[in-house]
Each structure stands twice: as structure tokens, then as C-alpha cells.
Amino acid sequence: MIRKKKKVKKIRGSRTCGGGSHKKRRGAGNKGGRGMAGGHKHKWTWIIKYCPDYFGKYGFKRHPSLVKRLETINVGELEEIVLKNPDKFEKEDDKFVVDVIELGYEKVLGKGKVTIPMIVKAVEVSEKAREKIEAVGGEVVEL
After folding, report:
1. How many distinct structural domains can be found in the chain?
2. CA 123 to chain centre
3. pLDDT digits (tens, 9 = 90+) for 76-97
4. Are 107 and 85 within one domain?
5. What is the distance of C-alpha 135 from the center of its chain?
6. Is the residue at 5 inside a domain?
7. Is the pTM of this model over 0.85?
8. CB 100 within 8 A of CB 136
9. What single string gives the DSSP state of each residue in the chain?
10. At a CB cut-off of 8 Å and minimum separation 6, what does 113 contact?
11. Range of the domain at 110
């Protein structure tokens, strides 16, 4: 049921407006601080019970210079590029020669279908991509 009047209208005039004892509702001091204040002090048992993973670090953090990040392209996308612009790619024994590095990529991944034979030159090639390229009579050259 929807109230026609706000509850505060009824409560007005009473000392605490429905808040119980006047000592309650006194602000953050009444709660032991705002938010996670006291997490290492008086709220420690609450942290242990309800948020046990709140503090601490887990796992390994590698230095950014050690992480090798290669630009990737899928075999299906590579074929689409070749089919859209066939005159841009050289042909060698009826196979398109695709230098992935010239296209701005380094690694070839195996998502998609391959229907035309290609000679793919790349820094790295995944196993699935290699299988798909060689299944239609293509070759893979790792640089």
C-alpha cells in the first residue's frame, strides 16, 4: 500500500524521529568508522570472516619487459585479406605469398577456414594454423 503522507510527518515532534535511543544515529563514530576503517584494528574479525582475501597478494607479477606480446591474426582473416586484394600478393607456383609482418602482424592463429593455398611467412605460427594451411597445399615459413 502506498502511503499518502510521509512517515516523518507522523514522527515529527518526537525527540529522535524513530531512531531509537538518542545515542544511536550519531554518525560514523557510531559504526566504528566509515567504510573499511579499522580493518586491521577493531574490525579485524569481520574482515577474517567475511572478506578473507581482502588483504595480501597472490600469484606472480612479471616485469613488462619480460612479457612477449605479439600482434596476432587468424588464418580466416588472412584468407579474407588475400581474397579481397589478390593483386597485392605475389604468386609462387599458384600459391599466394603472404608476408604477415608487412601486414603489421607477427603471429598467425588457427581460427577460421582456409580454402586457398598460401605460403605464409610469420615470426610464429600456431599448430592449428599450420595444419590448416598445409591441409590445402600451402606452406609455412617461420622467420
Report:
1. 2
2. 25
3. 999 999 999 999 999 999 999 9
4. yes
5. 33
6. no
7. no
8. no
9. ---SS-HHHHHTTSSSTT-SSTTSS--HHHHTSSTTTTTTTTTHHHHHHH-TTSSS--S----GGG-----EEEHHHHHHHHHH-GGGSEEETTEEEEETTTTT--EEE--S---S-EEEEESEE-HHHHHHHHHTT-EEEE-
10. 75, 76, 79, 132
11. 72-142
